[in-house]
Amino acid sequence: MKLGTSFSRPRLSALLVALCALSLPACTGNTRSTAPSNNISLMVSPTTNEVYVFDLLTHRVTNNLETGNRPDDLAVSSDSRRVLVSNINDGSISVIERQDGSSFINRGKVTVQGTQPQGVAFNPQGTEAYVSVGDTSSITVLNTSNPSRLPTVVSTIRIPFNQNSTRRPSPAQIAVSPDGQRLFVLDRGNNSVLALNRQQNTFAPAEFFLFPTTAPVDLRDIEVDRSGRLYVLNSANDELLIFNGANIQQQVARVSLRDQQFNVITPENIAINNSQTKLYITGSAPSIVSFIPNIQNLRGEVNIAAAGGRSIPLGLDPRRPATSPVGIDITSNDRLVYTSNGGGGYNVSLLNGETDILERNMGTSASAANAPPLGRMKIVAFGTVPGVTPGIRSLSGKSTPAETPSDDPVKGILPLF
Q: Most CB atoms closer than 10 Å: which of 6, 298, 313, 397?
């Protein structure tokens, strides 16, 4: 364009509209996001004792939040305001508050009775949280009703020995029923799944599922869908077990995650999409994600292929290989699936949640050599900035039909390195 060129009124209006689309806050006079979410993921870094705030629009770490010694699990309240992180080596729970958009502050720590807090989960209302403590065979109940204050300990639930206990109970991962009236806990000490029912202000053991003594058992993760069905990972046998959440002694299905290509999986964590139609599982040994569709139809004993699922390798790009995926979560529009990888280097992977293929591997540091191993992760929420659609780019460099990426970090998402 030559200097002094004039714009007609229609061309000037079109230019202003385009500028507003790229910088909405500047056009509205509001420089802070008022959306309920800001496309943020929180990723545990066990070796650096931190939680990374990872922007899913730009694929950049925007903040490093200090935790206690060896952070393990994390939970996010339903309103996305409060985050709890269990620190497995110092008996504490780190409390993080989300103030606005992608702004987080560290509120401090709460101690529990014991030195090995592991699983942590909120109730559906976000007013209570539950922490399993392995070395004291207990579950700590926290009052989390005031987000601007540290949680307070309400009670401690002891998991008792019973005639089926061969060892001291060692509660690990924990999940909450959709109505908040039942807790589900993995007892790794006795290779069992426990269900506890609410009784006024506490919970009491109700029933349990005990794995056969002859079966290889290493329980890793537990999730509940909105219909109340319970999903449990047995890593030692590379299997997913599904239970009736109303009575966990009723096993609904068992899915072997092994296929013709991968006969050792070592499943780590589960993520269920928002439409409750697909389930994804990280497999750390072969560096894959297991994908299973139509999960509400699963019945009986099947393998992953018979269930319509398959394995998605994360090492397809030789330039950016990803290894040992651990954490996994899905954006609320079901279009993007992220994993946090325990192999370091390219420690974040992105999958297309519509085609279920790997899009790219990336890292949380400017150099792969400096990116630490990551543990579990949670996507706080997914709210696209008005007028901006995050894009995804395939390994071939071509755009997927679903979304159109851009080299402009406002319009697209870029790999970190």
A: 298
Which residues fall within 8 angstroms of residue 318, CB to CB, at 6 or more apart? none
pLDDT of residue 353: 96
pLDDT at residue 4, rounded to an integer: 40
CA angle at 60 for the pair 57 and 64, rounded to the nearest 5°: 125
Residue among 186, 195, 103, 200 at smallest CA distance from 137: 186
At 52, the amino acid letter reads Y
Integer Cα distance of 352 and 381 in angstroms: 17
**Residue 270: CB atoms within 10 Å:** 22
Regions of the chain with pLDDT less than 50: 1-38, 382-417
pTM for the model: 0.84
Place of tokens 């070592």: 266
Q: Mention every residue, 6+ apart, whose C-beta is less than 8 A from residue 228.
A: 177, 178, 244, 245, 246
Strand pairing report for 357-362 and 239-244: unpaired
